[in-house]
Amino acid sequence: MLLLAACASEAPQEPAAPPPAAEQTVDIDTEAPLPADFHALTGRLDGAPAGSDIELALLQIDDNHRPQKMLATMKLKGTGTPIAFKLPFNPEKFPANGRVELHGRVTQAGMLIKRLPQRYVSGSNNQSLGTLMLVPAP
Fold first, then answer.
1. 134 near 119, Cβ under 8 Å?
2. pLDDT tens by residue, 47-76
3. Per-residue pLDDT tens digits for 21-43
4. Which of 25, 57, 104, 129 could bridge 116 with an S-S bond, Cβ 3.0-4.6 Å?
5. What InterPro entries does the entry give (predicted)?
6. What pTM does this model have?
7. What's the pLDDT tens digit per position in 85-95?
8. How many CB atoms lie within 10 A of CB 109?
9. What's the rounded Cα separation, in Å, for the pair 127 and 108?
């Protein structure tokens, strides 16, 4: 008799899933002061679709044009309009006689859709790069 009573009871209800958290994007404050021992590359990226994911990386490059070391990186959200960036880096990590380039890529739904053609960075000082155009990925 107990067995039948247990089968007749209602199944426990699963708790309702919490509503999804709203996606938050952080605006990069291009005017914010840097730590005393850091420098920065600043500029604007043009051509990133709204909602896309942008990654910028400052890379040390070897003589065979291969990345050897990441000096700095940052992620941004595309807005569909030119977006300001400020990529801070430690100038002490900058190679004295090495080649350094700024690289960038834009993904949407996990697919590479655009890229920033590599940009040579001369020296470890603060630099304003102006507006950089993103191009379609091959």
1. no
2. 999 999 999 999 999 999 999 999 999 999
3. 333 333 444 456 667 789 999 99
4. 104
5. Pilotin
6. 0.74
7. 999 999 999 98
8. 8
9. 29
- What are the residues whose beta carbons fall under 8 Å from the beta carbon of 64, sequence distance 6 or more? none
d(CA 76, CA 9): 52
Q: d(Cα 88, Cα 94) in Å, to the nearest integer?
A: 12
Structure tokens at 99: 């080649």
State the virtual CA torsion across 21, 25, 26, 28 in degrees, nearest 10: 180
Mark residue 27 as left, alpha or beta (left: phi above 0; alpha: psi -120 to 50; beta: remaining).
Answer: beta
Rounded CA-CA distance 16/81 in Å is: 38
Phi-psi region of 79 (alpha: psi -120 to 50; beta: other; left: phi over 0): alpha
